[in-house]
Amino acid sequence: MHIPDGFLSPAVCVFTWAVSALVVGCCVKKTSAELDEKMIPRMGLMAAYIFTAQLITFPVPGGTSGHILGAALAAILLGPCAGILVMAVVLTAQCLLFHDGGLSTLGANIFNMGIVGITSGFLVFEAIRRMAGNGAGITAGTAASSWISVVLASVTCALELVWSCTSPCHVAVPVMAVSNAIAGLFEAFITCLIVNFIVKVRPDILYNTRQHLKRASLEPGT
Amino acid sequence: MRQLFTESYLARDSLMHTRDPRIKTAGIVLFTLFVIITDPGSFQAFWLYGAILLALIILSKIPAGIVLARSLVIVPFVVLIALSIPFFHGVHVLWKHQTGGIELKITQEGLLIAWGCIIKAYLSTSALIILICTTTTPSILKALESFRIPRLFVMVLSFMIRYIHVLADEMGKMIQGKRSRSAGKHWLIDVKVMSCIAGVLFLRSFEKGEMVHNAMSARGYSGTIHTLDELSMDTGDFIFIGILSLASGGVYFLT
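Predict the joint structure of the above. Result:
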């Protein structure tokens, strides 16, 4: 889903760059206020983790294999602000060092997979977790948020292509949406297994439980 | 894992390698900008952009084959574009076909859009590959920092690049262990084990982050990293950026 250079018109590039720079800038500010400078190594390792998790090839029936996008995983594990920052870092490295996605379209890629993917993933996850509680809510929330984040990111990507007049609306949107709705099922399944494993081994490590613990430790007498 | 394939070309000594990373990065960004705003119809311009790239490849003494092979990453999007060609509307119809209620036609306008996307993607990707093949990662990061990109962002990026290999190695070991113990299992079990590996990798990297920070604090880290090598520009750098921007600007404005 990494858009290369030349597939988006200059106007779309400028617009998405501006939006992404603004949002990532805000996330940088918020993260450095929240976490203090000493957390930089940990953020770097989380980015390296998301990058590596995208490299793992999972077997798919039929002899092929696939990999995950990781936006919902980052949102669930790191929270929205740190998640967007980490995704932006991962996408920048993929653009500069591995040529996945172009320089002029980096803004659009950060917008699709970082901002749209993380925000939608986090909102859906939180909503379902609050409704269904911490047990089944985490599993259901993970599944729903991973599927929605993949589909929304791909639809945004398709809409950008349509807006740039690169691909007509009735081709790009259905092709991207249908193929990613199927890929999203796979993503949801894998992300569920990963998150369930982490919850089983270290239940204190998820973003929302970390926030919860932080709040609890601030209250007197706990 | 995907190795940083360019590492073997970084040690060479050429006119491109010795340029200041800020100059090189700015030059490539400028070149990319000119390429993407060029009208797809001006075929001459793209030939000339290609000639500029060829000159850069010759200057940097990297094999042209590696640039060609590496720029194939754009293929998935080329397929999407190729799928859209029959659906573009246009005046100059070259080929028409009616199936059911859907009308498929290949128009000159559609072909032009597809050609523009593919050639632009190809040229910009190749330019970026030349930059990466001639510049070490730390100096690219330094260049980014001097372009006023937030320090936190650049530092997270540098930590990430440093630890990709460590994590990928760790993952490779776990996958090898899994392979040697569970051959020929049902794919569902395979997926489950792989997911556990991904989970373990997360826990390990989370803990490693803490350890790295402790090790750094023990060595006096207080939020900034100090390095000895400072960037400096010389006349050659200014001549390089001057020629590159004149050439690509000239191609854009004159064709």
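Chain A touches chain B through 71 residues (CB under 8 Å).
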